[in-house]
């Protein structure tokens, strides 16, 4: 990035996509990388696409936060995702890091592992307690006659603001489910939100939904309401978990 933007962070190393060693550089190669017409130096759009493609896995080198900071920096410089390159890279990272073990069509009782989550309230009632409107936004994108499977075309029909609100409702409900309610609300609401937003990208969702969260991370970085207070104010909506 430094070659394009002098005000970018100081790099700790130099990365190369290459099938031969490059002195003083980290090298990675995959045959599918040859499908892309690379120049001598990756363009800002290529760099941005590479960074976005890394965001969906928690790597051993603990580079997730660095990649997300780079995503936001490159966005500020006008960089855009290259869909064809993204598809190549995502497939490579699936082979390298493993496919996401997420079933977006599972019901909440299957989605949340009771050995990890101390269930107190019905999951859908948590959504209702933090909803921006009369009903949770996720209901607007459900397939006809389905309680869990989503219809991408219905998501596409939402305006951008409602897409952001829907992501936040998901994060609020899950932060409450996994962090705040089990701690009797003693955990930090901000920390619970940040933890859940990150998990929404890396483990709780995949595909187009996770990509939307990554590309709108700057707008989603912080809660836009006091979601814990809203949840408590709507305690009458909560139903006990059975």
Summarize the structure in words.
- This protein is mostly helical and about 240 residues long.
- Helices cover about 45% and strands about 0% of the residues.
- The protein is built from 11 helices and 2 strands.
- The protein has helices at about 45-55, 65-75, 85-95, 110, 125-130, 150-155, 160-180, 190-205, 205-215, 215-220, 225-235; strands at about 15, 25-30.
- A two-stranded parallel ribbon has the order 1-2.
- Helix 1 runs antiparallel to helix 2 and helix 1 (about 45-55) runs parallel beside helix 3 (about 85-95).
- The longest helix is centred in the last third of the chain and has 21 residues, at about 160-180.
- The N and C termini lie far apart (about 50 Å).
- The model is unreliable at about 110-115 (pLDDT under 50).
What's the structural blueprint in terms of helices and strands?
Layout: E1 15-17, E2 26-28, H1 44-54, H2 64-76, H3 83-97, H4 108-111, H5 123-130, H6 152-157, H7 160-180, H8 189-204, H9 207-215, H10 217-220, H11 227-233
Parallel strand pairs: 1-2
Please provide the count of β strands: 2
Number of H/I helices: 11
Quick one: overall form? elongated
Class computed from helices, strands and strand pairing: mainly alpha
The major beta sheet can be summarized as: 2 strands, parallel
Percentage of residues in strands: under 5%
Helicity range of the residues? 40-55%
- Average pLDDT for all residues: 91
* Low-pLDDT ranges: 108-114
Order of helices and strands: EEHHHHHHHHHHH
């Amino acid at each position: 990035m430094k070659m394009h933007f002098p005000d970018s962070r100081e790099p700790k190393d130099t990365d190369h996509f290459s099938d031969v060693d490059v002195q003083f550089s980290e090298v990675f190669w995959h045959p599918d990388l040859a499908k892309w017409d690379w120049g001598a130096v990756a363009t800002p759009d290529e760099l941005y696409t590479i960074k976005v493609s890394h965001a969906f896995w928690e790597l051993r080198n603990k580079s997730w936060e660095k990649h997300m900071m780079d995503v936001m920096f490159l966005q500020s410089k006008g960089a855009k995702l290259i869909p064809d390159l993204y598809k190549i890279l995502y497939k490579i990272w699936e082979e390298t890091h493993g496919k996401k073990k997420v079933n977006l069509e599972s019901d909440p009782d299957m989605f949340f592992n009771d050995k990890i989550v101390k269930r107190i309230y019905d999951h859908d009632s948590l959504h209702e307690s933090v909803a921006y409107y009369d009903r949770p936004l996720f209901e607007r994108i459900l397939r006809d006659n389905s309680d869990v499977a989503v219809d991408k075309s219905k998501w596409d029909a939402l305006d951008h603001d409602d897409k952001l609100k829907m992501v936040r409702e998901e994060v609020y409900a899950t932060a409450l489910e996994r962090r705040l309610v089990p701690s009797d609300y003693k955990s930090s609401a901000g920390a619970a939100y940040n933890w859940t937003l990150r998990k929404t990208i890396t483990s709780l969702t995949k595909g187009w939904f996770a990509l939307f969260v990554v590309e709108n991370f700057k707008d989603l970085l912080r809660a836009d309401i006091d979601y814990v207070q809203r949840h408590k104010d709507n305690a009458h909506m909560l139903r006990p978990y059975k």
